[in-house]
């Protein structure tokens, strides 16, 4: 027997949650084949088989919390190559015509990728269950097929329900509803390791910093005109789909150079100034919020920043982030505007000391040169640790970002 152990999970990570077993007890496995996925507060870790054989036992179930070096199960090395279950009777030989039918029943991942826009988790589940993604209605943004869509397609239609019994009126004396009634209206779900760590980190940021937020607004007219003028050429010549985020990222790196305390960190009674910018970009993935960072963003141009943001965001959505992606950040940008947020106060990504929040661009009337005009405006917010960043520096930082975005040509002068 070979024990399946929880591998080292990365810097400062001591535990994980068993997210999904890919093999059942008794299944034949090949060396290097992924057996189980573990979810940490930062990344998803795949645990491979060290030797070929058969999965003899699973010591931990999905949802269990495990520590580094815990035993997840055992592999029976002597069972390599044997069938997973012994057939009760000999199966009839397949006819030549049956092969194409079987192959057509479960389309390959490549065929599905080419025809349907779908999330990685949805493709994986569809391949395992033999579901043709072309027959699944996508409810994600832009019609993307998500994992719940595949699960819904696999679920047989429910039988007609009997008429519901009338609900008893709430007692006039104010007595609480019975436990049986309450349980039919509530669902209890255990928090994942990642969600628990997010909660802990957010509370830590609130309790361990002198948290304050200041606001400004940006007239997006100039940057929208610039993007509209160059986006088609940029995509055709460089293969980069240009969003507004790289412009904000560039403006932020230049503002951080002018106000280095916003890019600093507190270590005991010392202030550590970072002479580089590892720019964190908050990404909402299926597993929860993650903040991968673009290394040395201050050394990149707008196209380079755009490529790196697209790459880390894709790894986040595909659950392929590495520890290097998630460590070493010095400053973070979060964009609630993509979900329609008009204004908010972002929470600092501790131990960083500041975070820039972007919001929805909306046409609003403003006073310009003595006249009221309609312009596309965006509120921006800087949450900062008042222990090392004075209010004046925070306000001037936002003013610098505003000036650069309203006159994007000035970002070329560095």
- Would you identify the CATH architecture of the largest domain? 2-Layer Sandwich
Shape: globular
Name the CATH superfamily assignment of the largest domain: Chloramphenicol acetyltransferase-like domain
User: Any idea of the CATH class of the largest domain?
Assistant: Alpha Beta
**Order of SSEs:** EEEEEEEEHHHHHHEHHEEEEEEHHEEEEH
The quaternary state of the protein chains shown equals single chain
Cα distance, first to last residue?
62 Å
Percent in helix:
25-40%
The number of strands is: 19
Q: Mean pLDDT score, rounded?
A: 82
Description:
There is one protein chain. This protein has 414 residues and is an alpha+beta fold. The chain folds into three domains: 2-79, RNA polymerase II/Efflux pump adaptor protein, barrel-sandwich hybrid domain (OB fold (Dihydrolipoamide Acetyltransferase, E2P), Beta Barrel), CATH 2.40.50.100; 108-154, Dihydrolipoamide Transferase (Irregular); 212-412, Chloramphenicol Acetyltransferase (2-Layer Sandwich), CATH 3.30.559. It contains eleven helices and 19 strands. Strands 9, 12, 15, 16, 17, 18 and 19 form a seven-stranded mixed sheet that branches. Helix 3 runs parallel beside helix 4 (147-154) and helix 8 packs across helix 11 (391-406). It is globular, with a radius of gyration of 27 Å. The protein starts with a strand and ends in an 8-residue tail after the last helix.
